Amino acid sequence: MILKSKDPKNGFKLGNVKLKVSKEKLVSNAGLGTIMQLFDDSPLSEKFAECLPERRSNNTHGSYRMALMMLTSLIHGDDCLDDIEKEFSDNDSFESFFKGKVPVAKTFGDYLRSFDDEHIQKLNVFLTTMGYTIRDHLQASLPEEYQPQAVPHFSVDSTPHEQHGSKIEGCDYNYNNLWCLNSEVVFDEVGLAYAGVLQTGNTKPGVDGPKLLEQVLAPLKSIKVQHPSLRVASVSGDSAYGFEDFIRTATSNHATFIIAARRNIPWEQQIENFTDSDWVKWEPSIKELERYNQKNKKIPERYLARWHWSPSWAPQLKFPVIIKKEWKSDPFFEDSGSFHYHAIMTNEDLTKYKYQDIYDRYAARANMENFIKEAKMNFDAYHLPCLSFKANHAFLLLLLVAFNLLRWIAVITKPDKPHYAKKLRRSFIFQAGKIQLRSRQVFLKVSEKYFKEVQKLLEAWESQPVKIFPQFSTA
Predict the structure, then answer these.
(1) How many domains does the chain have?
(2) S-S: 386 plus which of 213, 324, 350, 391, CB 3.0-4.6 Å?
(3) 347-384 burial by CB neighbour count: b if 16+ within 10 A, else e?
(4) In a domain, 399, yes or no
(5) Distance CA 394, CA 371 (A)
(6) Burial of 250 (0-12, 13-18, 19+ CB in 10 A)
């Protein structure tokens, strides 16, 4: 007797779909045109164009047009300059949208190399203008519970960009022995980039922090003049920013700071001088209790204490140093472990805030790591495309402009939980459509569901669309 073998697929078979060729102009990324049109129609576009180098050659494609193409490519998620040519070259809908042929990758490289120090600085300042403009728009258009806080919180940090070419200008080994370039960027609590700088790989972390912070806080000077006693912003950074120039920049611009305390500040030696009454027990929030309960874990013991530090460069000043001690259980031996210590320094008024309030605000800056990961993973800032250092600097700043534009849309469309670029692209960019040319006009036919989503976006943007914007295709 022969046993019938069991079918591991349980008889399931996919439906037979037969392919047919269509000569219709199809679109696979229907949302790109709408997003770029919104930027082009905004007042920011003119200020952006003023930052760009002139294109004087006979075969010029226009500086603003070239920059918009690069922003479009970055928003689309392309990884390198070659992708612009591969994705959009000989594409009727893209070319009708940008009114001409798509340049080759070398042309885009030449364009980036045309940025000099003046244009790079202007583009950096434009990021600050863009950040405050978007912030004002969000405060005016979002429901009150989702609006940015009245006093902005800026976080500054540096990150390496690993490279693999030996001829890339500025590459060097950093403190982790990584062959890289380095960047330093300022984000606010919404996730908008306000300033950035590209550095050589061996640059010490934090060195450009004072310059970037001065640039970001400069637009708030009018508030400081009108309300001398008011703190116009709060700033946070890791221990790399606990030095004189950064602290002076923050305080001179009427900003509060919360910075991780350096090891050269003798806060660890003060721990043994604290008595039990000096330590204040950490009170876990409801969300924290729920999180630990879900993981079936016990909340660790945590305590906070305060010590005052006087810097050698200003012995008349005293900055509070808040020290946290937290019990860390031993992973191998039950009911054993030890206390671990961490400290932050600040110029906050501790008569108005609890120690835990200050520490919670410092902990919130960890979200900046998500923004850095977003730029690296979803805009491929892991690597920079050019051999020229200035060209890579210009590319990084254009990348941050594209980053801000997508973040703007993310917060507008879903303020309670903004999507990151990967999901936002699926919702607004990688949508199917059909290009139709009639009466010297370009129309895009899209699905009803996507059309409704675009309508919601435009209403949130305070636009009243008459028609869908012309689009382009990679089909």
Answers:
(1) 2
(2) 391
(3) bbeeeeeebbebbebbeebeebeebbebbbebbbbebb
(4) yes
(5) 19
(6) buried
The pTM for the full model equals 0.88
**Number of other residues whose CB lies within 10 A of the CB of residue 105:** 17
Residue 42: inside a domain: yes
Mapped onto helix, strand or coil, the DSSP state of residue 165 is coil
Task: Single out the residue of 75, 191, 184, 192 nearest to residue 131, CA to CA.
Answer: 192
Residue 288: give the domain boundaries. 261-347
Report residue 257: phi and psi, to 5°.
Answer: -130, 150
| pLDDT value at residue 2 | 53
Contacts of 300 (CB under 8 A, 6+ apart): 326, 327, 328, 329
Identify the pLDDT of residue 469: 42
In the block, which residue shows the tokens 């078979």? 13
* 421-428 and 448-460 helices, crossing angle to 10°: 120
Tokens of 251: 């305080």
- Residue 124's SS3 state is helix
Helix ranges (DSSP H) in 260-323: 286-294
Q: Is residue 91 within 8 Å of 102, Cβ to Cβ?
A: yes
* pLDDT tier, 19 (very low <50, low <70, confident <90, very high otherwise): low
From the list 204, 264, 213, the residue with the least C-alpha distance to 235 is 213
**Model pLDDT, residue 426:** 81
Q: What phi and psi, each to the nearest 5 degrees, are found at residue 317? A: -95, 150
Of 42, 117, 103, 44, the residue nearest 73 (C-alpha): 103
DSSP for 232-246 reads -EEEEE-GGG-SHHH
| Domain finish residue from 328, 347, 366 | 347
pLDDT-based confidence at 474, cuts 50/70/90?
Answer: very low
What is the distance between the alpha carbons of residues 120 and 124, in angstroms, rounded to a whole number? 6
pLDDT in tens, 105-116: 888 999 999 999
* Separation between Cα atoms, residue 329 and residue 335, nearest integer Å: 7
Question: Same structural domain for residues 32 and 100?
Answer: yes
Are residues 57 and 106 located together in one domain of the fold? yes
d(CA 465, CA 455): 8
Distance CA(358)–CA(251), nearest Å, equals: 17
